[in-house]
TrEMBL record:
NCBIfam families hit by this protein: sensory_box
Record-linked Gene3D superfamilies: 3.30.450.40, Histidine kinase-like ATPase, C-terminal domain, PAS domain, PPM-type phosphatase domain
This enzyme's EC code(s): 3.1.3.3
Top-level EC class: hydrolase
Name by which UniProt lists this protein: Phosphoserine phosphatase RsbU
Source organism: Streptomyces lavendulae subsp. lavendulae
One GO MF term: phosphatase activity
Recorded superkingdom: Bacteria
UniProt keyword Hydrolase, yes or no: yes
Alphabetical list of CDD domains matching this protein: HATPase_RsbW-like, PAS
Keywords assigned: Hydrolase
Matching SMART domains: GAF, PP2C_SIG
């Protein structure tokens, strides 16, 4: 009868074989079928390999449990693959030396029963493994082995039984615990286990003592500090239980680490082909030193190493340094027992002296550092007197240095150096592998950082924003604080342009300190260099990187860290890459600012200097040029005096937008003023302007233009003479709300040579408004809708009683609200109004 089942599917890829093995192993161990796990895993591995590798289809694995065994089915979706038929006289199914059919051969050899079933879509290979006969009550059992292979133990085996309550404090401490660790029960009860345990764990990595006590079961190695202060390595098995009141506690069984076989979960003893047990695999020296499981990150591994080295030699401090790529310097990466002034990532030379004791490439024992000052720079002013250091080497190449130190002299001999060197030799390869993995992660992170930085820097051409981005990308990712100096030209001194600190409250103080220090000397050599003056003024380590762009130094990027930290070489290399990208972005922003300033200056020269005050008239102008950064486009306007009591005005639209249209705009506006002041009438002025435009040849552009003369009258009102050359007609608004066209349409300019233009005259009475616009107003669109002449007239009808300025503003607001998108065409609005005369005027 089937009592349990478990199923899983695996994609047709190589790693699925390992996943299938793990699935079957975990399933059978969970069912308590440890005796047949290995055979089931071997068979599953072969059958899944056939499905996902050879057949190239998904594999479906099904485990079925019964009271006396287990059945495992492996199905693939390649039913046309047939059983490997063999000629008569050959061994059935397969040859061990051939790939094809080996899974079926293993089924025949290992399984109690097996078979193959076909359907139209699947092929099932199944096997059954029966449980071996065992005495009643036996859950697991090992084979009979010779006495010489049995684990060693003391003649009087002691197992410490310690119970931990829900507050992680010791609530029970048996006699064997007193004997092993030296602590009497009355002095131990109520103390937290964390005070006694020397847990092989670094903050932020692995499983700590608090986490382990929360698990239902835990098994592994750690240390207990004995009454004499020494750490006693133990092997422990923890089981979390609850009492009759539901209160949880943890029962801990502990033995000496070399007697771990008493508690360790037994592994299946491998059997040779002759049926005899083989020698068990010796314990890995690296695991014995570091502990299992080993940290999976470099910082955790290094910190675990110095803690174990300190405990192994009963030292007061330990340190580990890693060599740079050129093996000329060692970088501090992990310490324990040293004051915080021993900076991480500080560097010391590999060759500190002429003798072998001055080189990190050889083991060294110093009985008393007071007799040889400076022999170990890292330990200066720490109170350490004796020290032993050993190199870490991989394939003959120096990769680091491991040392332990004590406060009393003469603590170490060559014997301790040999023990430490033995441990260093076992962990050097693991440290180097973890270091290379960290470098690879740093490189990938650096690439991602630089890509993001490039995108941000490329997204702006504003100089101030570029300076802010440079600092914000640097702090706190690369440094604690940052200062950017800019250099206007080669004759100028560096100017402190931007300061940023990770603590915003310290920015002003930092800026004040840097302002009192002479700026760093600009140099063309790439890479970071120290800046001692700032380091003295601010404190900590300070480096300067040049901002090089287009073969000149345009600024300096200064980075700083507090006194207890140092810059890593990888960080400085990343900062160098960032400085090159930032320098180019900063120089682009400078060039853009200069070009923009020139462009704006030239554009402003094309605009009228201002509208004159016309007696008895209100005049309002609104102008909007399309395009980012444009102040002048194809639309233009002008109001100017011609002679006493006579004023000229114009509003026009050159074909197109941008600088090309603006050039014709400048020609038209200046020509109009010149020709009008020569005493020519409106038609003559426009005819000569038309000729000037046609003379431009390929650069010429046609334009529409409304030109007029304004004659204010002393008794109120004004006489206007206008010529409308292809331009939207001016609209006249009466006080009663009537809107009418004030001119007739005539041919535009810049198309034909001979024009026959005429002038029209109208009178503006008090309260009248004359509105002149360009087609950017009337051709405002929202989808298929257009404001048009009628829409403009409707808006103007609502403007009775308003001043000229209010009329122009209302027209602009109506145009902007007509569509959600920004305007794509230039726009000019020119409004005249004759105000009502007040009594007494």
């Amino acid at each position: 009868m089937i009592t349990a089942r478990a199923a899983a599917s695996f994609d047709p890829q190589g790693r699925s074989v390992a996943a299938a093995r793990a699935f079957v192993r975990d399933t059978l161990q969970g069912w308590g079928f440890a005796d047949i796990v290995d055979d089931a895993v071997v068979l599953t591995s072969e059958l899944v390999t056939n499905a996902v590798v050879h057949a190239g289809t998904r594999a479906e694995v099904l485990c079925l449990r019964s009271g006396d065994g287990v059945r495992v089915e492996v199905a693939d979706r390649y039913p046309e693959r047939e059983l490997p038929l063999q000629p008569p006289g050959r061994r059935p199914y397969a040859d061990p030396d051939r790939e094809s059919g080996r899974g079926l051969m293993l089924c025949a050899a290992l399984a109690t029963r097996w078979g193959v079933e076909y359907t139209t879509t699947h092929k099932h290979v199944w096997f059954r493994l029966d449980l071996p006969d065992r005495p009643v009550g036996t859950r697991s059992a090992g084979p009979v082995v010779p006495d010489q292979l049995l684990p060693l133990a003391d003649s009087r085996v002691r197992v410490a039984v310690v119970q931990i309550d829900s507050a992680d404090a010791v609530s029970a401490w048996n006699e064997d615990a007193e004997h092993i660790f030296g602590h009497p029960a009355e002095k131990t009860l109520g103390r937290p286990l964390a005070e006694l345990a020397a847990w092989p764990q670094t903050p932020g990595t692995g499983t700590g003592v608090a986490e382990a006590l929360r698990l239902s079961r835990w098994e592994g190695s750690y240390g207990i500090r004995g009454a004499d202060g020494r750490v006693i390595p133990v092997y422990a098995s923890h089981l979390r239980v609850r009492d009759a009141h539901g209160e949880p506690s943890i029962v801990c069984l502990l033995v000496h680490d070399d007697e771990r076989a008493l508690l360790q979960t037994p592994a299946r003893v491998p059997v040779s082909d002759g049926g005899q047990p083989t020698e068990p695999r010796p314990a890995d020296p690296f695991e014995l030193f570091i502990g299992s499981p080993a940290p999976d990150d470099l910082e955790g591994l290094l910190q675990r190493t110095v803690e174990r080295a300190r405990d192994m030699l009963d030292a007061d401090a330990a340190f580990l340094l890693l060599a740079t790529d050129d093996e000329t310097e060692l970088e501090v990466r992990a310490t324990t027992g040293l004051p915080s002034t021993r900076q991480r990532f500080a560097r010391v030379p590999v060759e500190a002296g002429a003798s072998r004791y001055g080189s990190a490439r050889m083991p060294a024992v110093h009985d008393d550092l007071a007799a040889v000052p400076g022999a170990v720079p890292l330990l200066e002013s720490t109170g350490m007197r004796s020290v032993v250091t050993v190199p870490l080497k991989v394939e003959g190449r120096l990769t680091g240095s491991l040392g332990v130190a004590a406060e009393s002299p003469g603590r170490y001999t060559n014997e301790e150096a040999l023990r430490l060197q033995f441990a260093a030799d076992r962990l050097a390869l693991a440290v180097e592998s973890a270091r290379l993995g960290e470098l690879e992660r740093l490189r990938r992170g650096s690439l991602s950082f630089l890509v993001e930085a490039s995108d941000l820097l490329a997204g702006t051409l504003d100089r101030d924003q570029t300076l802010a981005l440079m600092a914000q990308m640097t702090v706190p990712t690369l440094a604690t604080w940052c200062a950017v100096y800019t250099i206007a030209d080669q004759a100028s001194d560096p100017f402190l342009a931007y300061v940023l600190h990770e603590d915003e409250e310290r920015i002003d103080d930092l800026k004040a300190l840097l302002s009192r220090v002479s700026p760093p000397e600009p140099v063309r050599e790439a890479g970071a260099r120290p800046w001692p003056e700032a380091a003295v003024a601010v404190g900590g380590e300070t480096v300067v990187l040049p901002l090089l762009a287009r073969n000149r130094v345009i600024g300096l990027l200064t980075l700083g860290k507090p006194s207890e930290e140092h810059f890593r070489q990888e960080i400085l290399e990343l900062a160098d890459d960032l400085s090159r990208r930032a320098a180019l972005a900063l120089d682009n922003a400078r060039l853009y600012s200069e070009r923009t300033a020139i462009s704006r200056s030239l554009q402003r020269s094309l605009l009228p200097p201002g509208s004159p005050a016309i007696p008895g008239m209100e005049v309002e102008v609104i102008y909007r040029a399309a395009g980012e950064g444009n102040e002048v486009g194809g639309d233009f306007y002008d109001v100017f005096p011609i002679r006493d009591g006579v004023y000229g005005f114009a509003i026009g639209d050159v074909c197109g937008t941008g600088p090309e249209a603006a050039a014709v705009t400048g020609l038209a506006r200046h020509a109009l003023r010149l020709l009008a002041r020569e005493g020519l009438g409106g038609p003559a002025v426009l005819e000569r302007l038309n000729a000037a435009i046609l003379d431009e040849g390929a650069r010429s552009r046609f334009l529409t233009l409304l030109y007029g003369e304004l004659h204010p009258r002393p008794d109120g009102g004004a006489l206007m003479k206008v010529v409308c050359a292809g331009h939207p007609l001016p609209l006249r608004l009466r006080p009663d709300g009537e809107v009418t066209a004030a001119a007739d349409p005539q041919p535009l300019l810049g198309v034909i040579e001979d024009l026959d233009l005429y002038e029209q005259t109208l009178t503006l009475d008090p309260g009248d408004v004359l509105l002149c616009v360009t087609d950017g107003v009337t051709e405002r669109r929202e989808g298929a809708r257009m404001l048009g002449d009628d829409g403009l007239a409707d808006v103007l009808t609502t403007c009775t009683g308003l001043t000229a300025g209010a009329v122009a503003s209302r027209i602009l607001r109506a145009v902007e609200r007509f569509a959600a998108e920004p305007a794509s065409d230039d726009m000019a609005i020119l409004a005249f109004r004759v105000p009502h005369q007040r009594e007494g005027d």
